[in-house]
Design goal:
The structure holds 2 protein chains of 2 kinds. Chain A is of the alpha/beta class. Chain A is built from 18 helices and 6 strands. A 6-stranded parallel β-sheet of chain A has the order 3-2-1-4-5-6. By secondary structure, chain B is an all-alpha fold. Classes of the chains: A alpha/beta, B mainly alpha.
């Protein structure tokens, strides 16, 4: 009869293979051709690691564990299957937050054991708890904002001072917990409460275009927290997977922040707030509207049309209509290209996912660097529900909060047609000079019916 | 815990190499895959479930059990949700050659 302890090499081998599969999976996910295989590989690794863990010698509470796994898996599986593609960003945020919460909870169990840990282990546990708890509560706020449960951004008076004091207090309590091993439960409780509060306070003032960067940052946070708790538990699967994700997430966050020309520290500490700086340059001129029929005619008889999709297209679920329109134009001999700003939508690559869902081939989708020079030769730039990413103020107006952010030069096209729901400002609340340009015409309405109307007109033109 | 013995120095090496691996692996990702990739890496840190299971498995007092239970629920949700969402997104990238011409 085999004793449980003799399974240990098997467990270690499973963790080793799982860690390898995670890295290979991430690598495969870096190319469109192999991406789908990548997630399956990583999934096999996860299954292997989870099943192997059941063989851990002396593992108790199996019944409770099975119930917990069933509850967590069922809820997440169901919500993940039913969520709309446009709501993906907030789902990623909330699942990520849960991972951070799990890491923090692991640390809490360690402290609740009531036995003394070495200063190193206790420090790692506390650091992981802090990062994980911030990621958890911060991601919950990010979810609430993107889901529309929380409309406004709140900025406290002297926000940065409050952030700094709260951070200091939290770190101070963390140090007290580490020094006072075995941990004093009241201190531990206060430490966790402050860490959770910190995540909320940090995230509340952040809005608009900065959201994807914050979600990505919290993703990296959770990875690091998981890695740290891996060191506490002496578990190589957690260590490797956590640190790999922490590093990858940090790089991804930097790439996104760079695309917006906003240092991460600016996003975290000086939130965009157009109302507060009060120095908005007056935008002169008036917006001129045009009809769907005119828009159809301009595009039908153009040589080259560049489509700039934004979040407005996503909320209107207009991607299928847009591709149908593009196909019709191509049949009529018009060259159609799609220009994607790195932070269009709510996450980098969000627009690409939606266009892929609609069936737009990769060859027609271009990044900012690839296409920006081409706007000058385009007859029409069709801006669908995008705003800040085509705002020329980013190039010219030094007092604008988005000054310096690379934008798509839609204003350089011969004609600019902007499909927009109303006359209001974009998500960041900044006026857009593009809409008042000489060569710009506004086409008001929800993107889906508007594009549908254009399609009808193009069809009648033959 | 009952894992294999890892000295502090070996742990440091693991940290270093894992960090470089993560950095290198992602640096070649095209922009169009950034959202799926973030989602995919989100799934991978769902391995926190394993740590949560070990924590709950060694919990003795009701407080530890409650905390461990929460950890496992959250970890399982991270893993399962991360997988489903990533899978759904990536599925679109493979089937887009024919579709959309309706």
């Amino acid at each position: 009869m085999m004793t449980l302890a003799s399974f240990t090499p098997l467990i270690q081998a499973s963790y080793f293979i799982a860690a390898g599969l995670f890295i290979l999976g991430l690598k495969a996910m870096s190319s469109p051709v192999t991406a789908r295989g990548g997630i399956v590989w990583a999934g096999v690794g996860m299954l292997l690691a989870t099943l192997a863990t059941f063989l851990t010698p002396g593992l108790g509470n199996i019944g409770l564990m099975l119930i917990a796994i069933a509850v967590g898996t069922t809820l997440a599986w169901w919500s993940g299957k039913t969520v709309k593609m446009t709501d993906m960003p907030q789902m990623i945020a909330i699942y990520n937050g849960m991972g951070g919460g799990a890491a923090a909870a692991i640390a809490a169990v360690e402290f609740a054991h009531g036995e003394a840990h070495s200063p190193l282990v206790a420090s790692l546990a506390a650091l992981g708890a802090l990062i994980g708890a911030v990621s958890f509560s911060g991601s919950c706020v990010a979810y609430a904002k993107l889901q529309g449960l929380m409309k406004k951004t709140f900025t406290l008076p002297a926000q940065n001072v409050v952030n700094a004091l709260l951070s200091l207090a939290t770190v101070g309590l963390g140090i007290a917990v580490v020094i006072g091993q075995p941990a004093n439960l009241t201190l531990v409780l206060a430490f966790f409460a402050l860490a959770l509060l910190l995540g909320v306070i940090i995230t509340l003032p952040i809005g608009g275009a900065d959201m994807p960067v914050v979600i990505s940052l919290f993703n990296a946070f959770t990875g690091l927290a998981v890695g740290l708790e891996g060191f506490v538990l002496g578990n190589p699967a957690l260590m490797i997977a956590g640190v790999v994700v922490g590093a990858a997430g940090t790089l991804l966050t930097q790439l996104m922040a760079r695309a917006m020309n906003r240092p991460i520290s600016n996003i975290m500490f000086v939130p965009i707030n157009a109302g507060a700086n009060g120095e908005d340059e007056e935008v002169t001129g008036s917006m001129r509207a045009l009809t769907a029929l005119d828009a159809a005619a301009v595009m039908r008889y153009a040589q080259k049309v560049i489509v700039v999709p934004g979040y407005g297209m996503a909320v209107a679920h207009a991607q299928h209509k847009v591709w149908e329109m593009a196909s019709l134009l191509e049949e009529a001999g018009v060259e159609v290209k799609f220009a994607i700003h790195p932070v269009a939508g709510r996450m980098p690559g969000h627009m690409n996912v939606l266009l892929a869902e609609a069936g737009v081939p990769y060859e027609k989708i271009f990044d900012l660097e690839e296409i920006n020079a081409e706007f000058g030769t385009a007859d029409v730039a069709l801006v669908i529900g995008a705003n800040d990413v085509v705002n020329p103020a980013a190039r010219t107006n030094k007092s604008s909060p988005i000054y310096g952010m690379p934008i798509l030069n839609a204003d350089q096209a011969q004609n600019v047609i902007v499909v927009k729901r109303g006359q209001g400002t974009g998500y960041s609340g900044i006026e857009n000079a593009l809409f008042y340009g000489e060569n710009t015409r506004m086409l008001y309405g929800n993107a889906q019916p508007v594009i549908g109307e254009i399609i009808q007109h193009i069809k009648t033109m033959g | 815990m009952n894992g294999l013995e890892i000295s502090g120095l070996a742990a440091l090496y693991i940290f270093l190499l894992a960090a470089f691996t993560g950095y290198e692996v992602i640096s070649r990702v095209p922009v169009i895959l950034h959202t799926p990739l973030m989602s995919g890496s989100n799934f991978i840190h769902g391995v926190v479930l394993v740590g949560a299971m070990i924590s709950l498995g060694h919990a003795t007092t009701p407080l530890e059990q409650a905390l461990g239970f929460i950890a496992v629920v959250l970890g399982a949700a991270n893993a399962a949700g991360g997988y489903v969402v990533t899978e759904r997104m990536l599925a679109m990238f493979t089937s887009n050659k024919k579709g959309g011409q309706s």
